[in-house]
Amino acid sequence: MLDVRFRSWSAYRVRMSEQAVTRVDSAPGPVDRDVVQSLVRGVTVVRAFDAAHPALTLDQAAERVGISRSAVRRLLRTLMAAGLTTFDGHHYRLTAGLLDLGYAQQSRLTLTQVAEPHCAALSRDLERTVSLARLTGSDVVYLVRVGRPRLVDVAIGVGSRLPAHHPAIGRVQLAWLPEAELEAFLASETFRTRPTRMFPTAAALRETLADIRERGWCEVAEEIAAGVTAVAAPIRDRSGRVVAAINVLTESGVHGGATVLDEVVPAMLHTAADIGTDLHPSHLS
User: Fold this and answer.
1) Is 25 a residue whose pLDDT tops 50?
2) I want to staple 176 with a disulfide (CB 3.0 to 4.6 A). Which of 99, 203, 242, 246 is the partner?
3) In this structure, are residues 114 and 279 in contact, taking their beta carbons and an 8 Å threshold?
4) Cα Rg, the chain, nearest whole Å
5) pTM beyond 0.70
6) What is the DSSP letter of 263?
7) Most confident of 139-148, 218-227, 252-261
């Protein structure tokens, strides 16, 4: 239970860290020579930064940590040398480099392993089939597919490949391709020999891709299967580059229109953003 003397969990955690340092410093009996006291204090300083305190002056940091101002300054400067904090002349802030430390173990995961829990949660919330696919050459390859079978569905499984311009999950990735890569796709045999009724020409596809970029997501009704509408959203890495996409299937004419806009699309966009936040460059290798 949270001690009533503290207003938030973050304040409570900081105080517990301070007490832990005090116990290590003043514990009776033999001193554990393997414990690096300065490292313990450095971790305590890092924990002083939280959502409510993303930037701290030296005095504020010393007050929150309960260590002398000079000691906190040395710790913060050491963290700066390691690329884990920045200083603008007034405030210290943690850097994204600190997040990389937490990815040491998670970096062994694949894109599929990172994204699958998010897709499963979205599928449960919407009671719809959710997929994730990645653009590979001129095709999209499905890496995740979760959801209960429904009366209307599409026979696509993990490992399935489709021409990128056919499904919504492919078009939404084509929409943000660099121009040179898009030109290569339009010149590919896949596009030239596997047309759709919507895209008899490259100009028609370009127009649709421009609309997708403006909207921020893609909707395709009854292109892959009769009675099925798919909506798709891009997944971006830390740099903002589109690296994959997710889609949600719904029945055309039953759950389209306002429901897609008001329920499915916001949840899908939120999930796509969450996946992107969890991605590390190693997940995409």
Assistant:
1) no
2) 242
3) yes
4) 25
5) no
6) I
7) 139-148
Q: Is 285 exposed, middle or buried (0-12, 13-18, 19+ CB in 10 A)?
A: exposed
Q: How far is CA 166 from the centre of its chain?
A: 26
Number of Cβ within a 10 Å radius of residue 37? 12
**Do the Cβ atoms of 48 and 10 come closer than 8 Å?**
no
Express each pLDDT in 71-97 by its tens digit: 999 999 999 998 889 999 999 998 877
Q: Are strands 218-221 and 130-136 parallel, antiparallel or unpaired?
A: unpaired
Query: Which residues lie below 8 Å from residue 199, measured CB to CB, with a gap of 6+?
Result: 165, 205, 208
Q: Give strand ranges (E) for the chain.
A: 55-56, 85-87, 92-94, 130-136, 139-146, 161-163, 218-221, 228-236, 242-251
Q: How far is 126 from 266, CA to CA, in rounded Å?
A: 11
pLDDT in tens, 189-231: 989 888 777 787 889 899 999 999 999 999 888 666 666 788 9
DSSP state of 84: S
**Residue of 57, 66, 56 lying closest to 14 (CA atoms):** 66
Separation of alpha carbons 165 and 139, rounded Å: 8
Q: How far apart are CA 177 and CA 111, in angstroms?
A: 19
> Is 45:84 a contact under the CB 8 Å cutoff?
no
- Report whether pLDDT(106) > 70: no
Classified as helix, coil or strand, 251 is strand
- H or E stretch including 237? none
230 neighbors 220 (Cβ within 8 angstroms): yes
